[in-house]
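Worked problem 6 (solution included).
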Amino acid sequence: MNNLWKYIIIASAVVLSSIVFASAYTQRYRSNTGSVTVTGLGETVFTSDLIVINGNIETENYDAAEGYRTLEQSRESVINFLTSKGVKREEISFNMPSTYKMSESIYENGDYIGSRFSGYNLSQSFTIESSDVDVAEAAARELPSLLARGITIEVYNPLYYYSGLESVKLDLLAAAASDAHERAKNIVENSDAELGNLIMSRAGVFQITAATGDEEFSAGGSFNLSSREKKARVTVRAEYKIKHKAK
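Solution. The predicted structure is:
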């Protein structure tokens, strides 16, 4: 009988220990902290407030000095034309002129026998940089009309920038981080959990594209310069602690 009671006591102790262990394990599981990872988005549309237009003038002449005088006259014509259209003189800059010798091939009886000097090509590039986008854009659009005056000129497509871009980026990061937090809250609010502190946050690359259209994003980030109206977006990937509520 004594042995029977001894076994009963041992068995009861084992069962009791199991219950305590199970309770401790359950409690540890319920209070265990996990995490949730979300991606937030910040996006805005803005209008460029700075325009940059590049162009080039050139001339050809057998005499270098005469060619340079012609280039100077062309340069003054470009400046006068632009300022007459409302562009400020200080918004127009010219780079150093370049000169190179031209040559033409010589053939005899259909065979190439060499080359000879045929004159000089002189060119000079220029840039219009203005915050008065409408005025500069309209003036540059009319610059090719100087071709009718015998001026060899080439004007390239305008580039559009925004002076407050760094501020836009900071605002977008804040918006994307806030969006990530709201997404995390939505995930856990109807579940048996509570949203905890931020564990990790990492911003993606900025994508600046045309405000309209289906311009593709780039893995390294994109920076559209050809559109005056732009759209900027950035994502923030965030990981938050989640704590399961004890029952």
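Discussion: The longest strand covers residues 111-130.
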